[in-house]
Amino acid sequence: MIIVDRAIKARLATGRPVIVGMYGIGFMGRGLLINVERYMPVLRVAAICNRNVARAVDAFVAAGIDREDVIVVSGQASFSTALEQGKRIVTDDPLLIARSPQIDIVLEATGHVEYGATVTIECIANKKDVVSLNVELDATVGPLLRVKAEEAGVIFTGADGDQPGVTMNLVRHVEAMGLRPLVCGNIKGLQDRFRNPTTQESFARQWNQTPSMVASFADGTKMTAEQTIVANALGLKVPQRGMIGREHLGHVDDLVDFYDVERLRELGGIVDYVVGTRPSPGIYVLAEARDDNQAFFLNLGKLGKGPLYSFYTAWHMTVLEFGISIARVALCRDVIIGTTDAPSMDVITMAKRPLKKGETIDGMGGYLTYGTGENYEVGRQERLLPMGLAENCRLKRDIDVDEALTYDDVELPDSTVVHALRREQDALFPLTFPALQPSRPGSPDNLPDQSTESLERV
User: What is the pTM for the complete model shown?
Assistant: First the structure.
C-alpha cells in the first residue's frame, strides 16, 4: 500500500496531473482542496459543483488560485472551453462534471444521501471513478453502487483518511501476515444518542462545521455508517443491535480480554466501537493467530499470548489523506474499501425522542432520529427502515423513544433516487437464509449512557 508514492512520482514526471472534479465544498471538501493545491501537484482539482457557487469560488481563492482564473459556467460547451484554457471551474449543474471527458476522476463530498446518489449514478453511467466521502450514502446503497461501477468498468470506493478506509488498510496488512481479523473497531470520544443540532451548536461553531454534521457524529449515526461500510466490505456482523459499545478509559490493547472469542468465531468476526479509549480518534483490529508459529512470533513481538492480538492505527487524518485515495484509484486502480458482495449490516432508524403521528423526519444529525447498527438479514426480515431513507418520511403512528422504525410506520417520499436504488439493491441481494438474532440473552447494554460533558470530543 506504500507503492502509491512511487506511482505519484512517476505521474509527476509525465507533466500530466490527474484531473479531478469535486461535488460539494463543505468543511471536508474545502480542507482537501487547499491541501491538494498546496502539496499534491499530481492532482489538479479542475471543477467544483456546489449549490452555493460563491462558496466554491471562495474555496478556490483560499487555495491560492487567482480569482481571474476561476470561472462560473452553466453549459457543457463553456465547461469544456474553460478547461482547455486552464481555468478552474465552478458550477451548480451536476451533469457537467459527470459528462465531461476531460475529468479523470470524481470526489463526492456532499454528505447528502439523495444528492450523492444522483451524482454518483450519473458519474458511473459516464464511466467516471468515484471516491466517496459520503458514508451515509455508502452505508445505504454502497453494495449496489459497486456492482454498477464494476459493470461500467470503473471504481466506486470509500476513502483513506476516513475511519473505514483506515480500518481496511490495517485489515489488509493483518491479513497479509496470515492472521484472521475478528473485531474491527472504531474509537470514539463521545457517544450520546440524544445529541442534536442545538446541543452541538457551540462545538460546531468552534470548528467551522454545521451543527447537524457534528450531531451525527455525537449521536452515533455517522460512526454506525462507517462501521456498516467496514462490515459490508469484510462480511462482518454485529453481535447485538447497536454493537457492544463499551466505555473504556484505558488503552486499546486492553480490549483483547473483553471479547468472547468463540462467539467472534461463530459470527465470522464483528464490528464494534469503544468510547473514551486511547489512542483516539483511531481504529483497532483484533486478530487471532492461525497456528503455533504465528502465536510464537506474535508473543516475541510483545503482543502477548493471545488468543486475540491488538493492532491499531492511532489517527485518521481526513483531508490530509483524502488526496492519497484519489491517487490510489487513479494511478494504482486500488479500491480503498468495498466489495460487490451482499451486505451484512445496515444502519436502521431509531427514535431520538417520542415521535408523533404526522411528523416528518428530519435529516441525519437532526432532532428526531438516530442511526444504529443491525445485521442486514434482521433488518430485511423485520422491515426496519434504513437511516439513509428516513429523511422526509412521514410518520403513520406514534413511536416511543429508542424504538426502531419500520417501513410500515412511515409514508415514504415520492420519486427519490435513493429509495429506488435501495429497492434495486434489496432485489439484487434477497434473503436466502434465516436472520440472525439481534442480541443474545445476558448481553451488555449496547449503548452506553454518555449524556455528561466529560467526553466532549467528537
Answer: 0.93
